[in-house]
Amino acid sequence: MNSDKNSSRKAAASPARGVIVITGASSGMGAEMARQFAALGYDLGLCARRTDRLAALANDIHSATGRLEQTSTLDVTDPEAVGAVFQGFVDAFGSIDRVVVNAGVSGGREIGSGNAQANCNIVQTNFLGALAQCEAALEIFRKQGRGHLVLMSSVNGLRGIKGPRAVYSATKAGVSSLGDGLLSERIPGLDVSIVYPGLVRTEMTTHMEGHKQMVDAADAVRMLVAGVERRRTKVYAPWWPTRLAALVVRFAPLSVVRRLL
């Protein structure tokens, strides 16, 4: 996949608080994270498959904040491209302080319904793509002796969910498990945050519009950013009622979870 830089800036308004790489940054929570982290003074390495949206986002951020940003086309299902793009950001900025493993897709099908390829594509992007990003980020962080890995999971990843969301929830459970494994490893200099978004208004949730618990992406990301900045190991976005939902999904009898989800 193409990993050439699409844009870069020569100067920033003030010294950066650090450099954050965000994948899947062209829309949804990824784009909102880019805006809010830039507003805090971070320089950004942004990557996604949709380069037109990515370029527009980068221009908007630079106009609003004056922060340095670089963009790169990236398909996270290509491990070599992920490594090359992340290293390109290191070469451009000198180091990376935080990587947000955010790229993901939804749209699963019921298992056994004749849509095996669609479900395999979700696994390829959401889990194998996340693994490729972890591999590339940790290689850089180990060399630097420091870094902060942020993994975007989901409340749906806390328990198996029936029907079309079964495969999606399984991939997010895998992402959470990767994060827990890295936390258990206690790698010197490495911080790990696992993020559990609730029902957030994005392009991926338009079919659920009108749900009483749905929140705007800006509000959810504001709480996410606050938790990540504190380097919490578990971050719920938004904290309420997502934290309560997480407890119910994780510990309630499966018969209860079946009715709720």
The CATH homologous superfamily corresponds to: NAD(P)-binding Rossmann-like Domain
Helix-and-strand structural type: alpha/beta
Helicity, in percent?
A: 40-55%
Order of helices and strands: EEHEHEHEHEHEEEHEHH
The CATH class designation is Alpha Beta
Unreliable runs, pLDDT <50, ≥5 residues? none
- Order the strands across the largest sheet as they lie in space: 1-4-3-2-5-6-7-10
Condensed summary:
The protein has 261 residues and is α/β, with parallel strands linked by helices.
Can you tell me about this structure?
The chain has 261 residues and is α/β, with parallel strands linked by helices. The chain has one domain (5-260): NAD(P)-binding Rossmann-like Domain (Rossmann fold), CATH 3.40.50. It has helices at 28-39, 51-65, 79-93, 116-144, 166-185, 217-229, 239-251, 254-260, and strands spanning 5-7, 19-23, 43-48, 69-73, 98-101, 147-152, 190-197, 200-201, 215-216, 234-237. The strands form two sheets. It has an eight-stranded mixed β-sheet, with helices on both faces. Strands 8-9 form a two-stranded parallel sheet. α1 (28-39) crosses α6 (217-229). The protein starts with a strand and ends with a helix.
Jot down its keywords.
261 residues, alpha/beta, Rossmann fold, eight-stranded mixed sheet, two-stranded parallel ribbon, 10 strands
Indicate the topology:
Layout: E1 5-7, E2 19-23, H1 28-39, E3 43-48, H2 51-65, E4 69-73, H3 79-93, E5 98-101, H4 116-144, E6 147-152, H5 166-185, E7 190-197, E8 200-201, E9 215-216, H6 217-229, E10 234-237, H7 239-251, H8 254-260
Parallel strand pairs: 2-3, 2-5, 3-4, 5-6, 6-7, 7-10, 8-9
Antiparallel strand pairs: 1-4
Helix pairs in contact: 1-2, 1-6, 3-4, 4-5
